[in-house]
User: What shape does this take?
Amino acid sequence: MRSSDSIIIIPTYNEKENIEKIIRAIFSLEQSFHILVIDDGSPDGTADIVKRLMASEFQGQLFLEERSGKLGLGTAYIKGFKWALEHPNNYQYIFEMDADFSHNPQDLPRLYAACAPKTDANPDGGYDLAIGSRYVSGVNVVNWPMGRVLMSYFASQYVRIVTGFDIHDTTAGFKCYRRKVLETIELDKVRFKGYAFQIEMKYTAYKIGFKIKEVPVIFINRREGTSKMSGGIFGEAFFGVMRLRLDGWLRKYPKI
Assistant: This one.
C-alpha cells in the first residue's frame, strides 16, 4: 500500500470500459494518489470491477461508495468530499476527475503542484483551487463536435459576463482543492446537481476569497462508453448562473 496526502474522486455510471484503465493509469504515476469511486448503481458492473481491484491489488489505496441510482453529479461529489474530509488519512488535496480519459491522468501532478505550498522548487504553487482549464490558453479540446465546443466555450463566457467571475473555464470538472476550501464551503448548502454544480463550487470559492489557478490542459472526448450530457443539464446551468449572481449580492458567504 502506498500512502498519499491526496484523494481523487471519480463519479461513475456505466463506465465498465474505462474504470479499470483509469485506475491503473493513476496508480502507475510516480506520484502517489488514492482513488475514491462513487458509483450510482451502474447496471453494467462498474462497481464489481472496482471491488475486484480493491481486493486483489489496491487495498488501502482504492475505495468505493455505492449509491442506489443516478442521483446527480453534484451529490456524488458532495458525498465524496465529505468522505474525504472524514477519512482518517487526513487528505490535504482532494480532486475531481472523470473516468473516461477526457481528463489526462498525466495532468494530476500539475494540478497538485498548483495547490502545494509555494517554494523555490515550486514557484507557481500556493493556490487553494486548481482548475484544469480547456480555455485559458485558447480552445484545447480534441474530438468534440464543433457544436459542443461552441456551447461549452460560450457557456463559460456567459458565466463570466453574468457573474463577473474572471475564470476562463467555469464549467471545468477537473480540479484540485486544498482541504481548507472544502472545510470552509458549506457543502450542505450547495444547490445544483448537474452541470451548474461545477460553476457553483468555483464561484463560491471565489466569493469566499480563495486563490484560484487555471492550469492549461487538453480535453479529449471519451473514446469508450456513452456521454452523460443532456439538454436538462445545460438548462440548469443557464438559469442557475442567474441565481448565483443574486447570491453574490445577497448571500453571506463563510469567511476563510
